[in-house]
Structures are given as structure tokens and as C-alpha cells.
Amino acid sequence: MSANASMEEFEALLNESFEMDTPEEGSVVKGKVIAIEAGQAIIDVGYKMEGRVDLKEFANPGESPDIAPGDEVEVFLRQVENSRGEAVISREMARREEAWDRLEKAYADEERVEGAIFGRVKGGFTVDLGGAVAFLPGSQVDVRPVRDAGPLMGLKQPFQILKMDRRRGNIVVSRRAILEESRAEQRAEVIGNLHEGQAVDGVVKNITEYGAFVDLGGVDGLLHVTDMAWRRVNHPSEILAIGETVKVQVIKINKETHRISLGMKQLQEDPWDLVGAKYPLNSVHKGRVTNITDYGAFVELEPGVEGLVHVSEMSWTKKNVHPGKIVSTSQEVEVMVLEIDGAKRRVSLGLKQTMRNPWEVFAETHPEGTEVEGEVKNITEFGLFIGLDGDIDGMVHLSDLSWDERGEDAIQNYRKGDMVSAVVSEVDVEKERISLSIKALGGDKFAEAVGGVKRGSIITVEVTAIEDGGIEVVFEGMKSFIRRSDLSRDRAEQRPERFSVGNKVDVRVTNVDSKTRRLGLSIKAREIAEEKEAVAQYGSSDSGASLGDILGAALKGDE
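^ 30S ribosomal protein S1, sequence as received from the core. Prediction below:
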């Protein structure tokens, strides 16, 4: 009877086991921790099944496992029974499935999710989102590039899901989106409390070549380099340092872009308000060269007030040189105020006006006829340029090189660097020209030699050379040439060979040419003149006397 009862009980239990729904592999089931041994948790998942899970699967990245006997947990059933008769389960896979369900809902609702950065990979970081691993690109870590992500590792913080694909197991998150959103809210609040013209305190956050970014308490404003001071600022680091607290004025607020323009100089007195009174026209002041350009140099008269010395106003003598060869940066110079334009905030200055015009000085100290000495600076096709006192040049024209040689020939006797003497012939201060003459050094020998000689005068010359076309003669050192046709009234006597070198001959002056420095001489003209004079004295055309009689009488009268 008892045996029959036992068989019935066994059959009932067998039928009961068949009727139980065995969980499907690949599903998440609930279990209870019944023991912890050898670094593993033994979990009873019901259905008379037990499985083992490594303790590390119960720990968050960077934390210790939080598990104890009696705890109820959800695990993923990978296999109902293995070779040892145990269920193959995973806490990590259960957390992942749970996490994906939660993350998909958050992604659909555009909600933030909490996670912790736990590793670094190529191009970014890995983030644990409570069981699911996401990728955080480097560009999405912060609003500005992060050099050291160490302080962010393991820290629980919110993230925004940018993209996710459950089939491929990919999730991309952003920390930057969260920061920008909170920053935008903070910016809107701070900007709402600001107004143009307001003076506020800020901290210099960053410095660039064009200005500095100032933190006004959650929102940055740009302080441009031109708004830092009334004076010229070459680089913002000259007057600002990162971390420094400065007082600035809100110049402009763009409500759409939330950009704020700031200024420091607007809180200071504008030096241009007093420029007209402090720097009258033609007054001379000392200043410091702050900048040099191709067209001139900027000179600071006082902080905030600069004037331009144009290259044309820098030197009386250096016309085609770069301003940097006349002045240097930081040099202190004297300048004259030439023009003030208050509307454009411009001052025109002159450097050369503080020194006397060297051409005026030269004209006073070297009147015409003064002898000077200088170095040949340049040789051109029309003359020589001679360096003179005051760093100016004088020019000797070809026609003023020599009395006796053509200018083109005479200039061949000079070389650059030669020291020469000359006479000042003209100074034109307005045109800045000085004319010199080398040939006038010993005076005008031609003028001295022929000073009393006029056209028609009878002079005595000495024969110095005999040529086919005539004879060369000299008078008081001045050479002249008498052509064959002027050697005699009688054609038969127009022979150069009848003269000898050293002969003294009386000739008539037919022309005095000061330009070519030549005397026109003629024996023939002298003879004709003598004949006319004899006829006038001793006979007439109708007296019947022959020419021989007249000349004989004239000669006898002379005796």
C-alpha cells in the first residue's frame, strides 16, 4: 500500500515538473544569492537551477562589488544547464539588457542619462551608462579642448545621447551638449542683468593677439585690444594677465548671438578732449616713436595721443629712404605740430621742421662766389654732384667744368670719391638747388684777356702753328684760328706757309664770342680797313689819283 502511495507521489511531482514553465535561454530572470565563495556569487534562479557569477560583474567601474547572500538580483540566462549541471548566467548581460531598454526610452524622450567615464580609446573615451558602454568623442568632452581628462575619470555625471544602434551595440554620447545647455541658460540669465554702458568687474580668462576674453560671472565678453587704452597697445599682454580682475564697461550686447563687447579705456578720460589746447599748430614737443611704417613713423606725444610724421616730413635731405633709417622705435624725438583733425583723431607732425632748412643755412653762409670743397658723390650725363656741408649736394653742370674742354670730355677726368673745389654760382632755396662751377675757380681768363678788346680792334697776335687751312695764333694766352681766306686781301698771299711760328702779326677783331670763348681774327679785314681809312684821308673816288698814289702818300704821311 505504501509502495503504491510512493509511486503516486513521484508521479504527481513528475507531472508538476512538466507543468512548470522553464525559463527560456536568452531571457532575464530573477535570482537569489545563496552563497559567495572563490570570488563568485552562487545564485538560485528557481526552477531548481543554480548558477555562478564572478563578483566583478556586480561592481561599477572603479568600485568594489556590492553583493551579499540573501540579495535578490536579475541575471541573464545564457544556458539552462552546462556540463556540470549548472545554469550559465550573467549579471553583466542582464544589466546591459536593462540599460538598453532604459537608454532607448531616454533617447526617444531626449532625456539626459547618467554615466561615468572609465577608459580612453582612440579618438575619445568609454563611458559606462549603468551597464551599457558608450563612446564619448574627444570633441564632445567639453566646450573647449581638454588636455587632461584625469579629473573626469570615474565621476558620475550627465550625458546626452547623440546616436544609438542596439543591433550593432553602438552608443555615442556628449558631455559638451549638457555643458552648452547649462551655459546657455547661465549666459541668458547673466546677459539679462547687463545693459550697455554698465561698468562691471570681470576676470581675464584668455588672451589673444587681438584682445582678451573676460569672464563676467558665467558669460564671456571680448575686450578688443583697441578698447584697452587710449594709447597704442601692441599686444594685450602688455597691460593684462590671465586671472587678473579688471573693471570694464559694457559697450555692446548682441541679444541674438549673446556676444558682449567690452572696453576699459571708456572708463578713463579721453586725452583727445584737450589735444587742441595742449598742442597748438607749429608748436614743438618731445615724443616717443611707437611704430614705423613704409609711409612714416608714429610718435606718441602722451599716452593716448599719437601723431604721424609722414616720410616727406622727416628729413630735408633724405628723400627716398625708409623711415626706419632715420628714426628707430622707442627713440625720443622733437616734432612740430603741423595739423590737427579732432574729428578723425589725427595729428600731423613734422620732424624736419624742428631743424633749419639746410639750403637756407648754406645760402647765408656761402654767398655766390664762395669757394667750397667736397666729395664727388655721383656722376651723371649732365654733370657732377658734390657733397657739401649740411648733408646737401651741389651740382656742377658739364658747361661749368672747364673753359677749354668740352664738358663731355672734361667729365672724364673725375671719379666718385674725388675731392674737388668749386665756386658757388647760384643757390635756389625754394627748389633746393645749388649750382657750382669748377671752371670759375681761377676767374674768367678769357674775360680778363679780352676785357678791352672789341669788335674792330686791331691787336697783335703770335703765330703758334701753321696748318693747311690757316694759322693758329695766341693772344694773352687765348688761342684763336685765322682761316686761309682771312690771311690776306690779295688771293695770291693767302698762303699759310708764308708765316712762321713765332711771327708777330697785326689782326683785326671781327667777333668776340664769350660763349665759345673765341676771338674772330682776320688779316684781310685789317688790310681792307686800312685801305678805307687811307682813301678817306688822302683821296676820293673821283680825284683821279691811283690807289698806289694814295697808299704812297699815306705811307709818306706816316713817316
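The CA atoms of residues 92 and 341 lie 79 Å apart.
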